[in-house]
Every structure is written in structure tokens, then in C-alpha cells.
Amino acid sequence: MGTGVIRVLVVDDHPIVLDGVALALQRTSFLELAGYARSGREAVDAVSQYRPDVVLLDLRLPDMLAPETIRRMTAAAPGVKVIIFTAYPEHAALADALAAGAHGVLVKDTERGDLVDVIRRVAAGERVVSVDLHSDGGILVNRKLREHGLTRREYEILRHVAMGETNPEIAAALGLTRNTVKTYLQRTLEKLGARNRVEALARANQLGIL
Known about the structure:
Strand content: 5-15%
Distance between the termini: 35 Å
Strand order of the largest sheet: 2-1-3-4-5-6
CATH superfamily of the largest domain: Response regulator
CATH class of the largest domain: Alpha Beta
Radius of gyration: 18 Å
Helix content: 40-55%
Number of helices: 10
């Protein structure tokens, strides 16, 4: 950022989002579009290739959840700042994304001036969260879990599955035995009417649980 220009990478699988952000950046002298990625894996490659100052990261990508994407991006480019750019301000994954190293949260229907301001502030080292993480988001998720008969533990294991972790890795992370993880996961599949992990994640996404 020696020239004073903030280079922004946009990670989203919806082209219309890129169009809107690109227009906002073009109208701002100190912002520049560094590149675009449609998935978590593309994002990791892009931060290594383009070395952006700030990443606007969609919370829900087709291949991995934001927390895992953030960990991989910051490992590839330690100085990069990440702003979660989401249409789901009540989503339970926001807290995990911040814990994984995100520097800000911004809702997609925000005004252009606010988008520019948050990018500038995060690039300068601030942590900017424009949503209330302590509102009814957790209540909403709890209600959805109850509706589908899922326990918090089953939900927690499902989230680890969504991050691509194996049963042994989940067991180590949660302090459980592998057999216990297997049992929880099997119950979760049954409750979601899924035959395997992929179907379970797809079903959980449809229900707004993940």
C-alpha cells in the first residue's frame, strides 16, 4: 500500500456482486480491483498471485466455509485483511469467521459510501463489524436445529465436516473418541435424510443451518 491505493480481491460466486463492487471501486481513486475468485480454493490461489491488501469474502462459497477459507488465505498471505461480505447477517458462521481472523463484517445491501469506508478502515488496521453478532442470530439457528431435531453437538460436528475435516480430526478438535464422532455423524445424516456427508451438507445449506 505504498502508493496509497488499496487493492481489493472480491471472492463471490455471483457475478452481479463483482459488477456492483467493481463499480464502487472504479469511482474511488484510492481503491483498485485486484482480482476476482468464485470459490475458496480460487481465493487462496488469488491472494498468492495478486497480493491484495483487502479481501471481500462471501460467507457462503460453493466449496468451503468462510472460516476455512480465511485460515488458508492468511496462511498464504499473512498480511492480508479480510472483510466478510454477506447477505446473511444473522448467520451463525460469522462468529467463527471472525475467530478465524476476519477483520470486518459488511452486509451486501450496504451503501457504496459505507462499503468504501469499511474497506479503508480495515486496510488501516481497524476491526469493523457492521452487524450485531449478539442479536437473534443464535436464537434463529437454535430454532432451526430444534425444528429438525438436531442437537448443538451434532451441529458442531456438522460444521467441522463442512470445513473438510475427517472423523479423527473432528475427534481431536472436540476432545471426543472417533467412535463417538461417527455415532453423532450417523445420527445427523439420519435426521437430515442424507446418505452421506455431501448430501448432509447440501441439505443443511438448504435449511439455512450452515
